[in-house]
Predict the structure.
Amino acid sequence: MAIRKIVMHPDPILEEQCEPVKVFDKKLTKLLNDMYDTMIEFDGVGLAAPQIGLNIQVAVVDIDDETGTIEMINPVVVETAGEMTDVEGCLSFPGLYGEVSRPETVKIKAQDRTGKFYKLEAEGFLARAILHEIDHLNGILFTSKVSRYIEEHELEGMEEE
Ligand code: CO
């Protein structure tokens, strides 16, 4: 188990377009395991590679539901539908929360740790977490989408992505 250091805003790596992963090796497996450990350590529901200083298209999501941990390598949004506004946070912006509108459902295509392609459909909070992480891989931060910032006292047990 290895906890990586989280890169905080305004580190420029957080706003870079990440490079696709081409090699699916032991190093990638170790990275994914470390990213999971780091996300859990900091009570996040998702973590993207640039948040630990790597500009590659790798992200993990786990909202603690029946889906379990989603590992996304080179993910692409295939389709979205609907719209939903909810509160978001981000491990790279400690203590900052804001309302963000995102699609209510999403279909993605990505690769797993072995390089195998898979498709996934998600809705609600899971769709939100997935889209937040995919945004990270494109250098897009949730703060660019916030319509209203939320004071900490308005929150009840919010989780960070
Ligand atoms: Co984030």
Notes: The first helix runs from residue 26 to 41. The two ends are 20 Å apart (CA to CA). The chain has a mean pLDDT of 96. The helical segments are 26-41, 124-137.
